[in-house]
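Hi all, long-time lurker, first post. I run a small reading group and we've been trying to get comfortable going from sequence to structure in the token notation. Rather than ask abstract questions, I figured I'd post a concrete chain and ask someone more experienced to write out its structure so we can walk through it together at our next meeting. Sequence below, copied exactly:
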Amino acid sequence: MLLTVDLVILTLREGRLHVLVVERGEAPFRGMPALPGGFLNHDREEILDAAHRELNEETALASSWVHLEQLAVYGESNRDPRGRVVSVAHLAIAPGLPDPVAGTDATDASWIPAEAVLSGEVELAFDHRRIATDGIEHARTKLEFSSLATAFCAEEFTIAELQQVYEAVWGTALDTRNFYRKVQAAKGFIIPVGTDRRTTGGRPARLYRAGPKTVLFPPLIQPAPSATEENPNGEEE
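-- Answer (accepted) --
Happy to help. Here is the structure in token form:
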């Protein structure tokens, strides 16, 4: 039995949620897009250390300022044609990540819109679509009850930029006034930094940074999809 780590790396690019994929440089699935990842170097390498290493080796992204957490373990006997391979998947999030540079086992690396993975428009090797979907859904849920949204933001950000994170990850527009009220009600979620950012043609926007609280109370619950979103043709089921 072999052990690998796989990474679901998320960031916002042009206001949309993106997932990092690499083009596999060797068999199996040579030439197919896949999540970054690989085998442990040796039996003494810690799993989290391996995740940080793969983040750097396959994408040339520095991991020191990336939110990284274990997502889930995937161990179905037929998930890898090379034999019994168990994957410990991790979720990585950071703001404004640059264009990646492929390394080691990858021939290319690129950002693709999350919806392209969720819809199956982009086919991933192994069971990586399932892993990516789980990572995205985990991020969506965690935004409701934790301060994870601030991991998508720069060190200082506006409430409008924080709202863009929720809208991009949840895939839905939010009412600005209602969002502002809920964010302010979650004590310790964000705190003002005492300076403003000049905006074009308007008042300076107040800047905030992540607060001390990691659990939101009250939580910011994801709005339920409207009937039109669930059935865009307007037909009764």
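A couple of things your group might point at:
The beta strands are 2-13, 16-24, 33-34, 37-39, 67-74, 85-93, 106-113, 190-197, 205-210.
Helices lie at 47-59, 114-118, 128-145, 159-170, 176-185, 227-230.
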